[in-house]
Design brief:
about 110 residues, mainly alpha, Arc Repressor Mutant, subunit A, three-stranded antiparallel β-sheet, 5 helices, about 55% helix, about 10% strand, globular
């Protein structure tokens, strides 16, 4: 029986950035810059997510003159569901790590 592994923090960051873009397409380079991650980290993640059907890819259809076409990325429905589930479990984990009494009492200064 295969064990489900939690994605790496870098993979979760890529998923979150693509989820934030919604239906829009993102360039890998822009993801690298926005996330502060190197291309050698981001592109393998994008390739794995695409192979798993969680990211859709296509070539830029009308690149600016003098620049080659770039790859574009966006989440599929399955990828968006994964991103939502990871975000929810992260929020639940953060809430669970705070003692219940601390959650119920307002902070006083």
């Amino acid at each position: 029986m295969a064990r489900a592994r939690r994605p790496s923090p870098q993979t979760m960051a890529v998923l979150a950035a693509l989820a934030e873009a919604g239906e829009g397409w993102s360039h890998g380079y822009d993801l690298c810059r926005a996330l502060g991650l190197k291309a050698g980290t981001v592109y393998p993640i994008l390739i794995r997510l695409a192979e798993r059907g969680q990211v859709e890819t296509r070539w830029e259809s009308d690149p600016p003159r003098g620049r080659p076409a770039r790859h574009l990325y966006r989440l599929t429905a399955a990828g968006a569901e994964l991103a939502r589930g990871l975000a929810a479990s992260t929020r639940a984990g953060e809430a669970a790590s705070v003692p219940s009494a601390a959650r119920l009492q307002p902070t006083t200064t």
